[in-house]
């Protein structure tokens, strides 16, 4: 171990970083491993104020997003992607080396990574056999922790299984954990199933938080722009911890345009196309001999279990198609997650699978 490594915090020395799609890499021309959109809109930038620091929370951007989600401006905080929101929630509400978060695996990996980097513990309540949340077990774990579990992360649609949250059971959990823990719903993919959003629960429960992003349906993964939705009291506490300039001026300009009436129309048209492509792909997968199971999903991806995922993954790689392999994750043996791309990308995906 080098001298610099020994200077790092012990938790960082032992940390295995989150392997994003770009860090894993791959060789090919069809990228279906990061749940990105297959297209990009055009935006105009005003560079006349680039010599000035941006607003802490750019008002036009915040107002546009608040209008989009039918909340008040003081119930919205913008962050550098939803990933920063996850970290800020942990840093704001969890004492290092004392408190814990709770996650329900298999789920998005950044909840645990963010907790580890902050020196915060990680408790787990596994998803049920059908990959739905075990709400009763989550409630019991929070109450039994005697105030040590401060934040519960629930992903809806869950990445990678696609499951949604049960609104009635979630409301019961929120009531039971009021004053004890925050319950966070990660709605990164909610634009693909907007009827399931849980934003209406925010006004009813002070301990309920929603994280959102422009990376998926808005096709803006590159600008790193996310949002936290919660009651004013939660937003005010997070605003104490977040960096002084969390969103750059150009990002705010692009986000405001994406949230305009025209931008929202473009986003919804994109969602309609991708949801149709998802249905076509899911149906075709079910007819393939190499497929054991296709998980139900409401996001811009499909998780499929194959008879031999290593063989399938190699076939994709040989054909220049980059997928996300989940075969080494508990309970996801032989599973590959396929991002929903455009029609040509879906045809190439099926051509490869039909060749096996």
UniProtKB/TrEMBL annotation:
Signal peptide location: none
Keywords of the record: Amino-acid biosynthesis, Aminotransferase, Histidine biosynthesis, Pyridoxal phosphate, Transferase
Stretches that traverse the bilayer: none
Pathway linked to the protein: Amino-acid biosynthesis; L-histidine biosynthesis; L-histidine from 5-phospho-alpha-D-ribose 1-diphosphate: step 7/9
Catalytic activity: L-histidinol phosphate + 2-oxoglutarate = 3-(imidazol-4-yl)-2-oxopropyl phosphate + L-glutamate
InterPro entries per record: Aminotrans_II_pyridoxalP_BS, Aminotransferase_I/II_large, HisP_aminotrans, PyrdxlP-dep_Trfase, PyrdxlP-dep_Trfase_major, PyrdxlP-dep_Trfase_small
EC supergroup of this enzyme: transferase
Residues annotated with N6-(pyridoxal phosphate)lysine modification: 216
EC nos: 2.6.1.9
The keyword Zinc appears for this protein: no
UniProt domain Aminotransferase class I/classII large: residue ranges: 39-351
GO molecular function: histidinol-phosphate transaminase activity
Keyword Amino-acid biosynthesis attributed: yes
Required cofactor(s): pyridoxal 5'-phosphate
Quaternary structure, from the entry: Homodimer.
Family per similarity comment: Belongs to the class-II pyridoxal-phosphate-dependent aminotransferase family. Histidinol-phosphate aminotransferase subfamily.
PANTHER family: HISTIDINOL-PHOSPHATE AMINOTRANSFERASE, HISTIDINOL-PHOSPHATE AMINOTRANSFERASE-RELATED
Protein name as catalogued: Histidinol-phosphate aminotransferase
Organism: Psychromonas aquatilis
